[in-house]
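Predicting structure from sequence has reshaped protein science. With that in mind, we have picked out one protein's residues alongside their backbone shape tokens:
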Amino acid sequence: MERSTTAGERPFAGGTPSLLRAINERTVLETIRELGPVSRAEIARSCGLSKPTVSQALAALVRSRLVREAGRSSGGKGRTAQLYELNAHAGWVLGIDVGRDWVRAAVADLNGAIVARRDERSQAKSARTLISQIGDLAHDLAAEAGLRWRQVSHATIGSPGVFQPTRRKMTLAQALPGWGREGVFEALQKALGTHVSIENDVNAATVGEQLHGLGKGVANFVFLHVGTGVGLGLVLNGELFRGSTGAAGEVGHLPFGSNSATPGGGRRGGALEATVGGVGVVAEAKRLGMRGSLNARRVFGAARRGDPLAQRVVALEAKRIAFTIAAIVPVVDPELVVLGGGIGRNGDLLLDPVERELHALSPLRPRVDVSVVGEDAAVLGAVAMALQSAQDRLFARAAGRREIVV
């Protein structure tokens, strides 16, 4: 069956009938994913295909169980129209956010509806214990959702560091002991027993913010994660930007001053992460004379209660975050900067001083705000990435079965 080329519809030169069928079906599937439940006429108007071509694609997608009928339209004059939607139960996905302190996981159907969700304290003492925890948590969640594990089509793990697909290993993942060793990816595949992909955790959080938070509908924005680590996610022209090796946004490795209380000072300038992240907050608190067992959360809590030393630490942290933003903004010219992470989410203490400092530092002044998705951003982004991979695989599998029949 060749793609029809009625008025307003451009032919694909040089395509085989099977390729053209696949292109048409994929176009219709993407339209239903975006708009559904939707009628045949609405699909045709949205994607520019003829109604007969849409009908043929719909028939194939329904036979493959990727799409299902969803009742009929109501209201208005004239006959009602059959509506179509993505078959949410054609497959299931798992999204996982792995950190030094927490592992957060969620199972979702193909419409992205979360059917099981759990957070656990991270067992990141070694790669082996963490992989075991991830595998156990994943299978427990699937059972909680009433699923057999083979129904889970794909798992995406949001992790510190950069995954190198050709080497099948993580780099720049110092936050998780042993995570950069050979064989970790293969061990994750074995523990999960399904298709697995690994994504940088800040990139996953950026996608979560793009789909569910302040980044929705914003073509150019950055997500600045400030917590134990510091990282940046970039959405440029509506798309997540990873760079040539996947390391775009690893701003924690930038130098930051020559005399800050960080490792690696002197000529190298010191790492931004060690200055702006949790280590830097604690170092400054100790330098100013705060006592006791300290971490960034306790320092910010003390500042909220009126502790003058803690308030001085927070004021300096706001200045450092503003410096970081001022260095980023002229490079990518974002409309919006979203603050996230355990430190960045303290908007009540940080937002006003960060904006004041930024206005003093730079003539470029994007809107700065705090994530509304919060600690769920990375796991929701991982779910969204897993959905894309699962839908791609299910479509390819269905198209392959149809080619065998043809």
